[in-house]
Structures are given as C-alpha cells and as structure tokens.
Amino acid sequence: MTDYLVKAIDKTKNLRLLTITAKGVVSEAQKLQDTWSASSAVLGRTLVGGLLLAGAQLTDKEELTVRLLGNGPVGPTVVTAKADLTVKGYIKNPHIALPPKKNGHIDVKKAVGQGWFEVTKDLGLKEPYTGQVPIVSGEIAEDFAYYLTKSEQIPSAVGLSVFVNPNNSIGEAGGFMLQALPGASDELINKTIKRINALPALSTSFLDGMTPEDLARKILGTDCKILEKQDVAYKCDCSKEKYAKILETLDTKQLKDMINEDHGAELTCAFCGNKYSFNEDELKDILAKKKAEKD
To answer: Distance between CA atoms of 184 and 291, rounded to whole angstroms?
Structure first.
C-alpha cells in the first residue's frame, strides 16, 4: 500500500484529524541507516510525527525540523519535513536494541531518555521560529501532543506506531494527530478521547489492513468528512552545492588545514549516506569565495 496522509473533520467541524500510513517511509530510513529495533522505533515514530505536523501546519515551501534531544542510548534524533510531505531524518546511534517491556513492546521511553523536544519552523521569514518543551514521556506521541498543547496552545492527541520485525525490517508504521478547533466543547473532546482509548493497538490494526480513512472514521465517527489525501515519501534533498555552502561556514584555518594537510575533504550526509568529495582546487575556490564575501 502506498504511504499517504488523510485530513478529515468531524460532523460538527470542531475537530480536525490527520491520519497516516508510512511503512515505506520508515523502511527507507531503516535501510539507509541500518537501524536496529529501538533506534527504528524512535526514528520511525519521529518521522511519522513530523509528517503529521507538517500536514497540519505547513504550506507552500515551508519546512519544519523536529529534534528529540534525549539522554537515552539512541542519542539525538532529527527529522525534517516539508509542506509537500516529504521527510528525512537521522538518529545518532542506529544500532540500539533493548530488552522488551513486559508487554513485549519496544522500550521506546528508555531508548529516548530525558531531555528536550524542539520544533523549528522555517516559514520563509527572516529567522526560523523554535519552540521547546521538556520530554514528558519519551514515547514520542505524547511529546508531540505536549508540545502542541503547551508551546502552540492547540489541544491535541497524537498516536504513533512502528512495528519492527525480528529481522529489523519494518512491518508497519502509521499514526494520527487530533486537534481541537476553537469551537470544540469539552463533551465532544472527551467523547472522542474515549473512542481513541478504546482503539486496539495501532500497529496491530495497520498490520490487519486498516487504512488512514478507516482510522479517521474510528476516531471521528462514520459521519466524518474526508477532506484530502496526499502521498508521503522519504526524500533527502542533499547536494554538493549545499555541502559547499556548509564548508563556507567553517573558519579559514579549518579550510586551510583541509587543503594543506588533508588535500581534500569528504562529507557524508547523515540523512541518506551520500558522500561528497572536494579536491584541493574546489576547497581553494570555497576559501576564495569566503574571503571575497568577507571583504
């Protein structure tokens, strides 16, 4: 099944819901970074959450970056999602597998640890905006919801799921993001939360063939309206030109050392693993450009 995101609204038009299936997205990240179970679950949930947040908030050429800065064994996780619902991400320590919890599930909370949850939005303004809240759960879905509620004053409920097979491949991935609009009553919100709490495990439901449309109707009711459907994909937009600009930000001494001592440089993209080589002449051109801009 193709990865895609659905936007829906309840019959009262006071609740907005985004649902998503993203097995292909998470599988691509798993293959590119060779993640093991705990790392796959953390990176996968953050990728799915980033896509849901992008679908809820971005337009045109806007993008956002989610940083999960925990002190757990997986280390920091960074995900960038764009308005066109393409996403990329990396995790510092991809080879983390932990003993399962008593219920057999991956111990995502232990993998993440404590720290900060950040969202930076590039909305085409002079300076990107960054919101930061403490990691309150480590299960990631609750951390997205806490961020939205505390940092953006949008009462929200979020569910994220990644099922990792015994061989580390991805069995399924998906989730939802529910947002209360200004006219939503406490009664409507509570009724909907009860529906969410009564749902079977998301991973099990997706494995059984549940679609994003099915999930929307389970949460909002069968009389909800499906507004939009959009494909999502893992896509890295790295290029040699972008890495040349990164090299320009280094100080003059570092660039001279690369030229005189290393006789070149090779940079590796953390998101996709592509390597970009720069020879001495290319580094000299970058150094000359840096000096010209300074003058």
So the answer is: 57
Provide φ and ψ at 263, rounded to 5°: 55, 35
Which amino acid is residue 74, in one-letter code? Answer: V
Average of per-residue pLDDT across 217-245: 96
Under 8 Å CB-to-CB from 35, ≥6 apart: which residues? Answer: 29, 43, 91, 94, 95, 168
Indicate the Cα dihedral angle 248, 244, 124, 126, nearest 10°: 0
| Cβ within 8 Å of residue 187, ≥6 positions away | none
Joined together, the tokens standing for residue 97 give 């597998």
Contact 170, 152 (CB under 8 A): no
pTM tops 0.85, yes or no:
yes
Q: What is the mean pLDDT of the chain?
A: 95
pLDDT, residue 1, reads 60
Query: Is the Cα torsion angle 94, 98, 101, 104 positive or negative in sign?
Result: positive
Q: Would you say 89 and 232 are in contact if contact means Cβ atoms under 8 Å apart?
A: no
Q: Strand 265-268 vs strand 275-278: parallel, antiparallel, or unpaired?
A: antiparallel
The pLDDT score that the predictor gives to residue 295 is 62
